[in-house]
Amino acid sequence: MRSRALMALAVALSLDGLTSAALAASSGDFKAAYARAEAANKQAGALKNQWTTTAEELKAAQTAATAGQYDEAIKHAQLAEALANASIAQAKEQETAWKQAVIH
What we know:
Helix 1 runs antiparallel to helix 4 (70-101) and helix 2 packs antiparallel against helix 3. The protein is built from four helices and no strands. It has one domain. The protein is mainly alpha-helical. It has helices spanning 2-19, 27-46, 52-66, 70-101. The mean pLDDT is 86.
């Protein structure tokens, strides 16, 4: 079941690469990507399943944006969003998966 979440993450990351703009990203592009990542991370937090790697990527995104490297910042924000979405999927899967492990 964990592999499904990891596969979903891999697909999300590969699709992000295909949809990246060829032009340089702006501050507004970063802010939108960061807001999506933060929202997903807050949802993961509400499910009590935030991953530390998500927080690390959010911090890296902020650092890159502060340095004016918006393309890099957006990559980190998109990865953070994908990680948060994978943690949400994991939490939802584990809500019922534990029942299969209980001895009847």
